[in-house]
Design brief:
Blueprint lengths: L2 E6 L5 H10 L3 E6 L4 H6 L4 E4 L13 H4 L18 H7 L1 H14 L16 E4 L1 H9 L3 E17 L12 E14 L5 E5 L7 E4 L4 E4 L11 H12 L8 H16 L3 E6 L3 H14 L3 E7 L7 H12 L3 E6 L1 H8 L5 H23 L2 E5 L4 H6 L24 E3 L7 H10 L4 H4 L19 H20 L8 E5 L5 E5 L2 E14 L7 E2 L4 H14 L3 E6 L13
Helix pairs in contact: 4-5, 8-9, 9-14, 11-12, 16-17
The structure holds xanthosine-5'-monophosphate.
């Protein structure tokens, strides 16, 4: 399978680059910038894209004279801006100089990749910081202009470059940078410029190395997709073959090879991810699959019964429904820390699966509907840990059963497309996501039966009203949250001291970023009235108007 590797230097759009490549039907993987070259090589990439970064490489000017000293020690006067002459560089030997530059940059914590990457013979495209890095590693010069250039900019393009084939001579693009390339590396030419930026794009046509100062992945660069298309199809020689059907076939064959003759269990929640994962595995192993639906008692009102009914009606897959409310609630008793809650739930899920696996016999594998966004949010080497998703960071260390996660590389919208391809009914495909730990992470503080009842009742009203306003499928998620505070109110002529309910409704593409929904006042008003009148223990309703970032979608 053709693969475009996006090396992530920490830029805010890194993931978006990978998504755009996938939108063009070429598989793309996002890897941390310090992934060893051997691993990158083993993936046989057709092309490599260097992402942007909040870091600056211009601060890493190297004192060439000192790096090249004869003692061989790496004595460096950090930050000294004394560029070497060509002669000095040659004397030092370019190879060792490059290696030392990498050490230097690493010491000063700017993310760099080994210059060995250029020896793989694979086309490279550097975006923004990525272009600076190419320049830096290949001995051009990057300087800091001292002021930011940010936003919509008109750019002149050299249309002879294969990167800009079919574009107009002047295009609009999105800039976001402080540094710029002031001296081209050897064998490079300029392919784009703006009135304030003479080098806004560069190319080494012999080695197929390209750099652009602007961001083709954002919608504000209208011809951005065309540029990425040119890179993929003209320069890397890829073909748009990564279709849903090909992903399904590929996964089915991997699952068959992995499972061999044993049995498999699948943790089913009733949501789209685990259902799609189950269908995929069923396609691969048929009757050897048993789905286990663990009702931890933290589901929405009546959800357990609904899930079982829908699943039995639509699929011919073995299903075991485990009712484990007491067990989960007793483990959660007295626990208020969100990370602890997630870990307890993650562990308990696995314990139930292991017990069931023993009963079925010959089960080595558990299927989970883990998504790419769960993996990223649970913290990878390059992304900070935001929260331990119960099915990733929340898993117990001594877990005996092995995992199959066929959706681990996919985003939610891609999983939805896969669901449709596998014949899943629209109403399941369009279901709003519901987190594995369920209402436990929407009840701030301790989870008790009383608080669970309050939240289930309020949540039902929120969903009913969102559905009756025709908004359910337009919104990523809409739900109620129960904070751990009480406030004073007056009902009838009586003073009340009761909980508030917070309503949360967000739009999102992939849960990595989200915006709060500007719900019509009438809808908010009706929800508020109904919740306060119908749910005992609540005397106030508030609406959460925070986006992600800086908030997250769930409150815990
Ligand atoms: P946050 O709160 O991190 O949520 O912005 C992003 C998306 O992930 C869902 N979520 C989870 N899903 N297990 C899950 O299966 C979890 O532990 C978990 N935590 C958050 C959340 O509902 C939203 O869609």
């Amino acid at each position: 399978m053709e693969n475009i590797i996006v090396l992530d230097f920490g830029g805010q759009y890194s993931q978006l680059i990978a998504r755009r490549v996938r939108d063009l039907r070429v598989y793309s993987e996002l890897l941390p910038y310090d992934t060893p070259i051997e691993i990158i090589k083993s993936k046989k990439p057709s092309g490599i894209i260097f992402s942007g970064s909040p870091s600056s490489i211009s601060a890493k000017e190297v004192d060439y004279a000192q790096t090249a000293n004869n003692s061989g020690t790496e004595v460096v006067s950090a930050g000294i801006n004394r560029s070497a002459t060509k002669k000095e560089m040659l004397a030092a030997g370019k190879e060792s100089l490059m290696a030392k530059k990498e050490v230097l940059a690493a010491e000063k914590k700017s993310p760099v990749v080994s210059s060995e990457i250029f020896k793989l013979g694979v086309p490279v495209l550097g975006i923004c910081y990525g272009m600076h890095l190419i320049t830096y590693l290949l001995d051009g010069k990057v300087t800091s202009s001292g002021s930011n250039e940010y936003g919509r900019t008109e750019i002149s393009l050299n249309r002879e470059s294969p990167l800009f084939e079919g574009l107009k001579e002047a295009e609009i693009c999105w800039m976001s940078h402080r540094d710029s390339v002031s001296v081209l590396p050897e064998n490079f030419k300029i392919i784009a410029s703006t009135t304030s930026l003479p080098i806004a794009g560069l190319e080494n046509s012999r080695d197929k190395i390209f750099g652009i100062q602007f961001h083709p992945e954002v919608v504000h660069t209208p011809s951005g997709m065309h540029i990425l298309e040119n890179f993929l199809f003209n320069i890397c020689g890829c073909s748009p073959l990564w279709t849903m059907m090909s992903i399904i076939e590929n996964q089915v064959s991997i699952i068959k090879d992995t499972v061999k003759n044993g049995n498999v269990i699948c943790g089913l929640s009733g949501g789209v991810d685990s259902t799609v994962a189950a269908l995929l595995v069923h396609k691969a192993v048929g009757k050897k699959l048993t789905c286990i639906f663990v009702d931890h008692g933290l589901l929405r009102l009546d959800e357990g019964r609904q899930v079982e009914k829908t699943f039995k009606k639509n699929f011919k897959i073995n299903l075991i429904h485990i009712k484990a409310k007491e067990r989960f609630l007793s483990e959660l008793k007295g626990v208020t820390d969100p990370e602890k809650k997630r870990k307890i739930i993650g562990k308990e899920f696995i314990r139930v699966f292991e017990e069931e696996a023993k009963k079925i016999k010959d089960v080595d594998y558990l299927v989970q509907g883990t998504l790419y966004s769960d993996v990223i949010e649970s913290g990878t080497r390059d992304a900070a840990k935001i929260k331990s998703h119960h099915n990733v960071g929340g898993l117990p260390a001594d877990m005996k059963i092995k995992l199959i996660e066929p959706l681990r590389q996919l985003f939610k919208d891609e999983v939805r497309k896969m669901g449709i391809e596998l014949g899943l009914a629209e109403d399941i495909v369009r279901r709003q996501p519901f987190p594995g730990p369920g209402l436990a992470i929407r009840i701030i503080g301790e989870v008790t039966e009383e608080r669970l009842d309050i939240l289930q009742a309020a949540d039902r009203i929120v969903i009913e009203e969102i559905k009756s306003a025709g908004l359910y499928e337009k919104i990523w998620q809409s739900f109620a949250v129960l904070p751990a505070i009480k406030s004073v109110g007056v009902m009838g002529d009586e003073r009340t001291y009761a909980y508030p309910i917070a309503i949360r409704a967000v739009t999102s593409e992939d849960a990595m970023t989200a915006d709060w929904v500007k719900l019509p006042y009438e809808v908010l008003e009706k929800m508020s009235r109904r919740i306060i009148n119908e749910v005992e223990g609540v005397n106030r309703v508030v609406y959460d108007i925070s986006s992600k970032p800086p908030s997250t979608i769930e409150w815990e």
